[in-house]
């Protein structure tokens, strides 16, 4: 009995040794997919088998992605390192992941070493899905990280420390289709910031600090969320090209009037709840107790019907506003 107890520590060490086992006994592994979620890893598991395409390493304690030799990961397409302590990513490591398409790095510390990390990210030219949420990134840091990612389709920058969108942020990401910028502190969108994004379909700017959207020109958007800002004005750009917008959320803002959307013919869902809208009458004057804070808001005094083009709207939410009158002409203009 004593002899077996004496051997027990050696047996346990042999079982746990990466040299004797190709993978952690706590990881779940199939021929092309490995999940090591929440198993207490403190470094990248280089000992995993060949041919892996999907690797989940979330909820661990990994601080860096580095290593001169990472055999077996040349086929990797999906890597999830969310909810770790990641602060350093080496170019040597990323260079060995030529087929990587999805990289999830949310809830880490990528604000540290961002210059070196961003330089390493320049090697990720095939990345299509990138999650950088909850990394304490400021505006210039986020711009640097994505500055050379020419294949991006989906980008999550939510819950960071961004205060403005710089004009050149998305200059090299023309194929972006979905962009999440929610839960930041964005107060300013510089002119031309979205201009390169001609394929953008879904944009989330909820839970920021925007005061005014003037000359909205993203005609190709399908879904736009601007809820929980401080918007007092939302106006679209004048022109002949119709908007493809189907879902628009302007709830929980400070809008004084029904937004004019003369070319939003495809709009089906419009949320205007929890604003300060007092009248739906075309060209109606503002109530005396409202003060126009921006000269540009005077544009709304013209007598264009605010809902003349909203013939496809199926869901309209005007709850929690300051409305006292619903004119018949308003409902007559709605198609459903």
Automatic annotation (TrEMBL):
Q: Which Pfam families match?
A: LRR_1 (PF00560), LRR_8 (PF13855)
Highest taxon of source: Eukaryota
Classification via SUPFAM superfamilies: L domain-like (SSF52058)
The stretch of residues making up the signal peptide is 1-16
List keywords of the entry alphabetically.
Answer: Glycoprotein, Leucine-rich repeat, Repeat, Signal
Designated name of the protein: LRC32 protein
- This protein's species is Horornis vulcanius
Instruction: Please name the taxonomic classification of the source.
Output: Eukaryota, Metazoa, Chordata, Craniata, Vertebrata
